Amino acid sequence: MKNLKYLINFALVSIATLTSFSSVALGQLGHQVVCDLAYEQLSLSNQQQINRLLSNMPKKHQDRLNNYMKRPQGSPITFAKSCVWADAVKKQKNYKKFEKWHYLNVSRKVNKITTDACKKDCIGQAVSIHQQQLLTAKKPWKQAQALMFLGHWLGDIHQPLHISYASDWGGNKIKLTKKSNTRCETLHWYWDDCVLSRQNRNYQQWMQLLGPATLAQKVQPWQSNSPWSWANESYQIVTSPKFNYCQKYNGQCQSPRGNKVTLPADYQTTFAPVINQRMVLAAKRLANVLSQSL
């Protein structure tokens, strides 16, 4: 019986390890791609600083992260993997206060995201707070946490539906009909997962696609250091008519009728380039933030 349990556990770990990155959600794939791309843009000195900070991660946090990502215990914690840590711990008692920092909810009357969009506990403030903590914290583990939060926040703020409305949980209540021809059941799920997985790339292919050649291209102005302008970019995407999230009525965004939408046949081809560019922007901006803060 013990041997059988061992074999079953071994098989499960092996399957998890071999699973393609194209099958996991943006919470893992997107965050890792963003942070890997950012890491590659940094100086060797900055990369070494990151590695030293991550070496201070307590074992219980390493184990929790590997477990969350379905990786074998003892797997190395790279910067890319560390950018998933904020999701791995957000239900833990000591980190539950950061749950609201993963997104920004605004009124349906808002046309543009500004510094007035949130006074407390949202992603617009989270970037500045943890950048400052990375700069000033005296304890290495405190700095490491700020580093990991920063990497995560830059990914989240560039995923459009993290800047949205509380009434539909950022698109989590917007159901996709069967005619949408997707396994993802909600609009938020689609943007966390299917808009990436339907591009049918493994991790190495993602890194090649969005790597040095793409990063060197002139994309929309990325040099802004304002998290609020990054949030506004996401907001303008989700409130555009083709996104199928916001239906304007008397200047105010209304949810789709019955909180259900059918995605048009060209939705994937229209928005795959959009999410890809958002990841490139996130990576360029994260590299810039880290080079100023390490």
Question: What's the structural blueprint in terms of helices and strands?
Answer:
Layout: H1 2-18, H2 29-41, H3 44-54, H4 59-68, H5 79-82, H6 85-89, E1 104-105, H7 123-136, H8 140-158, E2 163-164, E3 175-176, H9 187-197, H10 203-209, H11 212-216, H12 227-238, E4 247-249, E5 252-254, E6 260-261, H13 267-293
Helix pairs in contact: 2-8, 2-13, 7-8, 8-13
How would you sum up this structure, described in words?
- The protein contains 13 helices and 6 strands.
- With 294 residues, it is mainly alpha-helical.
- It has one domain: Orthogonal Bundle (P1 Nuclease), CATH 1.10.575.10.
- The strands form 3 sheets. It has a two-stranded parallel sheet.
- A hairpin with a 2-residue loop joins strand 4 and strand 5.
- Helix 2 packs across helix 8.
- The longest helix is centred in the C-terminal third of the chain and has 27 residues.
- The chain is globular and about 50 Å long.
- The N and C termini lie far apart (51 Å).
- The N terminus is likely disordered.
Q: What's the alpha carbon Rg, rounded to whole Å?
A: 19 Å
* Main CATH class: Mainly Alpha
Secondary-structure content class? mainly alpha
Sequence stretches where pLDDT stays below 50 over 5 or more residues = 1-25
- β-strand percent reads under 5%
Mean pLDDT: 87
> With helices defined by DSSP (H or I, 4 residues minimum), what is the helix count?
13
Which superfamily, in CATH terms, is the homologous superfamily?
A: P1 Nuclease
Mind describing the biggest β-sheet?
2 strands, parallel
Please give the CATH architecture: Orthogonal Bundle
